From TrEMBL:
It holds the Pfam family adh_short. PANTHER family: 15-HYDROXYPROSTAGLANDIN DEHYDROGENASE [NAD(+)]. This is Uncharacterized protein. Transmembrane segments: none annotated. The keyword Lipoprotein does not apply. It comes from the Eukaryota. Keywords: NADP, Oxidoreductase. The keyword Amino-acid biosynthesis does not apply. Belongs to the short-chain dehydrogenases/reductases (SDR) family. One of its GO terms (cellular component) is cytoplasm. GO terms for molecular function: oxidoreductase activity, acting on the CH-OH group of donors, NAD or NADP as acceptor.
């Protein structure tokens, strides 16, 4: 199932920044065409698109709201029209318990944008429903091109939050547990040439953290280590291109534990790599890159919100 990405085509949602941008950049540097689907591009992503608008491997950007299923369908249509066959799909767009869709700020409260009569949370639409629908669309495309025998890959973004519990981010935690379940449930697709895997990053230095002072309060810079988007992107590329991945990020020498890559594989990415087992897993623990040591201030804020009169009740 290992697949050289050179000459192939990938769709990466959320690649306007962060982990998904790092993955898209690695793909293009290794000769893979990439369609970036996102609401907007940060400056570094704009540079990538402009730099690779022409050449043997190209990047195109399609503005996309991943919570809109019609727009998700259009990115597959656009990629097929632009590049032909699609080989890799990463439904990576996600958000980390933003104030506008947040368990502790229920629908109808400020600053939530979730309507009390809407019947949905934007956080769930982005983090769970979008990856599910994008996976269906990817499988449909792959089946259409099944006759040529080329292996296909779907790489999801989970989190150490898919193994643990965080009081300050209940919906986010639930969404990442859901992604782990989805990936494992689809493991047998490998029997028809489609490998579904995921990375489960630790604390990553991306705009999901750095643009949000309320989340940065959880980081103790004297003890907590950041994992970089590039380190996670390296493991994502390895999930596609290799049948074994070393516990040492970026290592190709065979040192350290080697994890067999197959359908359903979830690799935790801290400052090292390890496989997340389905049963009796040891958990992320306090490995460097997995810790956000100071949750007290954010948890206190959650309790203060709970103490507000009428918390959680609809204003209808």
């Amino acid at each position: 199932m290992a697949l050289s990405v050179k000459g192939r085509t990938a769709i990466v949602t959320g690649a306007g920044s962060g982990i998904n941008f790092a993955f898209a950049k690695l793909l293009i540097e290794n000769g893979c065409n990439v369609l970036i689907a996102d609401l907007a591009l940060r400056p570094e992503a704009k540079v990538l698109v402009e730099k690779h608008s022409n050449g043997p491997a190209r990047v195109v950007f399609q503005k996309t709201d991943v919570s809109d299923w019609t727009q998700l369908e259009r990115i597959f249509e656009a990629a097929e029209k632009e590049f032909g066959e699609i080989d890799i799909v990463c439904p990576g767009a996600g958000v980390y318990e933003p104030h506008w869709s947040n368990f502790w700020r229920p629908p109808g409260s400020t600053p939530s944008k979730d309507s009390p009569s809407g019947g949905r949370y934007a956080l769930v639409d982005i983090n769970v429903t979008h990856p599910i629908r994008a996976t269906q669309l990817a499988i449909a495309h792959f089946l259409k091109h099944r006759d040529n025998g080329r292996p296909k890959h779907i790489v999801h973004i989970s989190s150490i939050a898919g193994q643990t519990a965080t009081f300050s981010a209940p919906i986010y935690v639930a969404t990442k547990h859901a992604i782990n379940g989805l990936v494992r449930a689809l493991a047998k697709l490998e029997e028809i040439g489609i490998r579904v895997t995921a990375v489960a990053p630790g604390v990553i230095k991306t705009p999901l953290w750095t643009d949000h002072p309320e989340k940065l309060k959880m980081i103790d810079t004297s003890t907590d280590a950041w994992v970089t988007p590039e380190e996670v992107g390296e493991v994502m590329l390895a999930l596609v291109q290799q049948d074994q991945v070393s516990e040492i990020i970026g290592d190709r020498s065979g040192r350290g534990t080697q994890y067999q890559v197959k359908g359903g594989t979830i690799l935790e990415v801290s400052k090292t790599v390890r496989e997340v087992k389905q049963f009796n897993d040891e958990g992320p623990g306090d490995r460097p890159g997995n810790t956000a040591s100071d949750h007290a201030a954010v948890e206190k804020e959650s309790f203060e919100l709970l103490a507000q009169k009428g918390w959680g009740r609809s204003k209808l």
